Amino acid sequence: MADLLLELFSEEIPARMQARAADDLARLVGEGLRDGSLAFDRAEAHSGPRRLTLHIEGLPAKSADLREEKKGPRVGAPEQALQGFLKSAGLKSIGDAQKQSDAKGEFYVAVIE
What pTM, to 2 d.p., does this model score? Predict the structure, then answer.
């Protein structure tokens, strides 16, 4: 497990504002990590007149591998639809996409890892 220490320096700010900013920093960074599927054990924020610090304990050494499938147009769709799909999926050619079938027919699918 890894730790993260974030320290932000600023001009001198009143203590009541810094304390709230420290709480907000811990909350927002924690929410962002959870939204990104990064679990952690504990987040602790501290403040002083000229700095905010955030210490996060128990972060994983690396994030989990993700696999996403992006469904595209039907096989035999117009060229313009295929080109739009390739561009949005970051593929170079239709050969990079896979074909999958369902009840509605056969579609191109981009697998993004």
Answer: 0.60
Nearest to 46 by CA among 13, 6, 1, 10: 6
Task: Give the ranges where 1-113 is alpha helix by DSSP (H).
Answer: 15-35, 79-89
| Residue 48: burial class (beta carbons within 10 Å; 0-12, 13-18, 19+) | middle
Inter-residue contact 56 to 43 (CB < 8 Å): yes
- 28-47 pLDDT, tens digit per residue, is 999 999 998 889 999 999 99
What is the three-class DSSP state of 79?
A: helix
User: Based on the domain organization, do 41 and 8 belong to the same domain?
Assistant: yes
Same domain, 10 and 51: yes
Residues 50 and 80 in one domain: no
